[in-house]
Amino acid sequence: MIKKIKIAKALNTYLPSMLLTVLLVFTTNSVLAEETTVDEVETEVNCLGCHQETQETPIHAIWQTPHGKVFGKSNQTCVACHGPSLEHGKVPRDNSPSLSFGPKWPSKFNEQSAVCLDCHEKGNQLMWLSGVHNDEELSCLSCHNIHDRIDDVLVRLEQSETCFTCHKSVQASAHMPSSHPILEGKTTCVDCHNPHGNISEHSLNEPTVNDTCFSCHAEKRGPFLFEHAPVAEECTICHKPHGSVNASLLKARGPFLCQQCHSAAFHPSVQHDGSGLANTGQGSEFLLGKNCLNCHSQIHGSNHPSGSRLTR
Ligand code: HEC
Ligand code: HEC
Ligand code: HEC
Ligand code: HEC
Ligand code: HEC
Ligand code: HEC
Ligand code: HEC
Ligand code: HEC
Ligand code: HEC
Ligand code: HEC
């Protein structure tokens, strides 16, 4: 536990030493305990001696978070992220901690994330380095608040607020007449996306758009006796996942949605504009109620023996 400080001094650069810190902390606490001497204890920078809990500073809320519990109330907690900070410990006003993150000595986005990735390189964070947010020079701290007792981005109801600070167009969509219940907190961004990056397009949680949708709308998966080709291809051909002015998150309303592809189909190959509806008998029954769905109700696919036209 103390040995790491000596090693850190010897290496004289903080990054590798922090890796070691983490490594040693997790693997060799008990082994090293025997080698600890009083002298060595005194060489350790006493963060908590200066950054006291009595001080008017909010940083001590960290003890109520998982990070505060990893090492307990000790300097080791601080060192795990801020590094050994030897010079800072001697003349704090002139020297940055090894990694400050703070307002006085701003640090680079990739240096910030590197520290976190020492411990969080797996799981959801596995693809961070190849993800869009890393490409855009965001760091873990663009979303996470480490010293706060409650990290807002982990609270389902408030999570999207963090995302909305940058993703204004998504925010606008979420307010449209038809939308996923994002504002209500029933679905959140992370139900569909991994904000830490993923190999799939748009960092979706599943390999494809459709698989992502099926995770909640399983009934749309089929298999169907009669598939509707665009449905099997991609839900976003017709739907806007974040929100739409049209009902059911549709990209276009009524017959226009269908006529993007079916204008020259079985029905008269003219735009159905409704002009023939009044007593003229010009085939506009296909537009009754302005909607192809009046008859083709099984738009996502049919399992009815005679459902080939998606009418039942
Ligand atoms: C899990 C990583 C981590 C640990 C552990 C940690 N910090 Fe921090 N610290 C940060 C980050 C990140 C920031 C930047 C502000 C933020 O995101 O909360 C920060 C900011 C600070 C600041 C500047 C606050 C400001 O805004 O002026 C101080 C001072 C500080 N930490 C001291 C400490 C001390 C003392 C400890 C040990 C009790 C400690 N930190 C433990 C990551 C950590
Ligand atoms: C001798 C007292 C002292 C010790 C020991 C000390 N600090 Fe500080 N620290 C300060 C003071 C004073 C400041 C404010 C510097 C300023 O704003 O000019 C500060 C500022 C900071 C900041 C904010 C930097 C920023 O960019 O705003 C962080 C982070 C920090 N200390 C972490 C640590 C860590 C981690 C340790 C232990 C490894 C530590 N400190 C040990 C006195 C100390
Ligand atoms: C010394 C190793 C270590 C370092 C460095 C570290 N973490 Fe952690 N972190 C942990 C452990 C252990 C947990 C609790 C177990 C878990 O959830 O995986 C945790 C939990 C978390 C959580 C979940 C908190 C919660 O309330 O559930 C977040 C978010 C997180 N860390 C982000 C960060 C960020 C951002 C950084 C860099 C500023 C960082 N961590 C640095 C070890 C570390
Ligand atoms: C774009 C915002 C954003 C960024 C940037 C970000 N996170 Fe997160 N992080 C989140 C959200 C949102 C959650 C909650 C995920 C959930 O509930 O499934 C989360 C959850 C976590 C957790 C909790 C366990 C888990 O995986 O769900 C850890 C640990 C974590 N993040 C670490 C990191 C680290 C390390 C970085 C930097 C490499 C980072 N995060 C960058 C948004 C972000
Ligand atoms: C129901 C699933 C779902 C939810 C919830 C969701 N998204 Fe998406 N998101 C998608 C899909 C699918 C795409 C791909 C869009 C396409 O191909 O038209 C996408 C694309 C994106 C894009 C890139 C393209 C664009 O539209 O700018 C961003 C950024 C984005 N989402 C952010 C968010 C944020 C932020 C939230 C939370 C407020 C969120 N998403 C919630 C499914 C979702
Ligand atoms: C600090 C600003 C910022 C924050 C906060 C932020 N993002 Fe982003 N995000 C970006 C930028 C910049 C891009 C790249 C340009 C774009 O696609 O809009 C991006 C891209 C994305 C993409 C598209 C990925 C792709 O491959 O097309 C998704 C999805 C996304 N963000 C989701 C989220 C989610 C979810 C959150 C909240 C947990 C979030 N973002 C928070 C800045 C941010
Ligand atoms: C996390 C679960 C979840 C995922 C993933 C999901 N949805 Fe939803 N979806 C919902 C919920 C919840 C509703 C609202 C249901 C309600 O209000 O009865 C909904 C509603 C809808 C609606 C109807 C909206 C309306 O205004 O009536 C459509 C269309 C839809 N989703 C399409 C999609 C598509 C396309 C995808 C994939 C990009 C997707 N969903 C992914 C949970 C999800
Ligand atoms: C060819 C266009 C099209 C495609 C592609 C499509 N949908 Fe739809 N979807 C519609 C239409 C039209 C409605 C409105 C149905 C109504 O009003 O009866 C709808 C309604 C919905 C609804 C809400 C009503 C319900 O039936 O539950 C959900 C959920 C939905 N779609 C999910 C999906 C999913 C998931 C996919 C991808 C597997 C998908 N859609 C692909 C056209 C499409
Ligand atoms: C992106 C293009 C596209 C859109 C939009 C679209 N379809 Fe289709 N639809 C197709 C394709 C491709 C087929 C398969 C044609 C085939 O097998 O010959 C098909 C098949 C059909 C069939 C069955 C025809 C048959 O020969 O079995 C019906 C009925 C149908 N669509 C109705 C609709 C309706 C109603 C809408 C609007 C809600 C719609 N489609 C939207 C592309 C589309
Ligand atoms: C009044 C009911 C009704 C309405 C409204 C309607 N259809 Fe149909 N449609 C049918 C029936 C019935 C068939 C099957 C005819 C047959 O198999 O002989 C069919 C067949 C089709 C086919 C298959 C054509 C083929 O070549 O086999 C397509 C594509 C189609 N409709 C698209 C649409 C579109 C697009 C709209 C809206 C503009 C629409 N339908 C509105 C009843 C309707």
From TrEMBL:
The keyword Signal applies. Keywords: Signal. Residues 1-33 form the signal peptide. It comes from the Bacteria. Residues 78-153 form the Cytochrome c-type protein NrfB-like domain. SUPFAM superfamilies: Multiheme cytochromes. It holds the Pfam family Cytochrom_c_NrfB-like. The keyword Kinase does not apply. Residues 181-221, 228-264 form the Doubled CXXCH motif domain. This is DmsE family decaheme c-type cytochrome. It comes from Thalassotalea psychrophila.
